[in-house]
Amino acid sequence: MLSSGLPPLLLFLTALEPSWSLSDEEKQIILDGHNKYRSQVSPPAMDMLKMTWDTELEAFAQAYAEKCIWDHNKERGRRGENLFAMAPTLDLEFAVEDWNAEEKYYNLTTTTCVPGQMCGHYTQVVWASTHQIGCGSKFCEKIEGIETEDMYLLVCNYYPPGNMKGRKPYKEGPSCSQCPEGRVCVNSLCGKCSEAARIFPSNSMFSSLLPATALDIEELETNSDQTSMDQPTAGAPSTSLGLSLFLLPGVILVALLL
C-alpha cells in the first residue's frame, strides 16, 4: 500500500487514464476564430461585442465534454452551447469555421434559415450581446448518440446566450456605431481597452493535424430560447441534429436531420 492509499496496480492504472484539456494556444484559436467571424459579418454590426475567454464557462464545458454525450447539456441553464465532434483529429480552427459556414443559409432580414439547413451555430457565434466563451474537449472512445468510435468532442458554452426567438443576432449599421458605454472599437468589435491584447500567451501558431477523415456532427439549437427557425414545442427546447461526413481528397456530405 502506497502513501496515497491506493494499491500499486490501481495507482498505475490511474496514471494511465487518458485526459484531454485545451492548451492556452488552442483556447486562443477558438477565441480568435469567433472574434474574426464576428468582426466580418455582412452587413456590418453596430453593436457586436468582442468576446473574451471565461474560465468558469471553460470548466462547465469541460465537465460536460468528459461525459461523452452527443446531446445538449440539460443543466446548462442560461448558457449558450455549440457541440462539434471530429475524427481522427480535432481541428479547432475548422470547427469554428464550420459553425460560421451556416451563414449562407441564414436570412438576417427575416431571421429565418433555409428549410432543411442549420443556422443555430452561426447565429450563436455572431450573437452581438454574447461576450464570454469557454470550451472543453475530450477524446471519447464512444460518444453516446454517435455510432462512430474514437472521436474528439468539443463543447463550447456562451454567456449571455444567443438565439433568442424573434430577435436578430445583431443590429446592422456602421461598425461600432452603437457600442455600449465603456467600450471602444477594436477591429470592428466593441471591446474594452484591456481586451486589445491577446489573452493567452502564444509562441507558435496552432497547426492542424492531417484531416485524413473527419466526421463533423452538428446541433442546431443552442439555448432554451429558440430562433424563429427552430419551431419549438411549448415549454421545452427542440433539437435538430445534422451529420456530415468529410473525406479527402474528395468531399462527401451526407446530411441527416432528425
Automatic annotation (TrEMBL):
Compartments where found: Secreted
Residues in coiled coil: none
One annotated GO molecular function: peptidase inhibitor activity
Name of the protein described by the UniProt record: Peptidase inhibitor 16
Chief subcellular location: secreted
Keywords annotated in UniProt: Glycoprotein, Protease inhibitor, Secreted, Signal
Function: May inhibit cardiomyocyte growth.
Residues annotated as domain SCP: 25-166
PANTHER family: CYSTEINE-RICH SECRETORY PROTEIN-RELATED
Any single Pfam family the record assigns to this protein: CAP
Family statement: Belongs to the CRISP family.
Organism of origin: Limosa lapponica baueri
Record text on subunit structure and interactions: Interacts with PSP94/MSMB.
UniProt cross-references to SUPFAM superfamilies, sorted A to Z: PR-1-like
Cellular component aspect of the GO annotation: extracellular region
Extent of the signal sequence: 1-21
Domain of life: Eukaryota
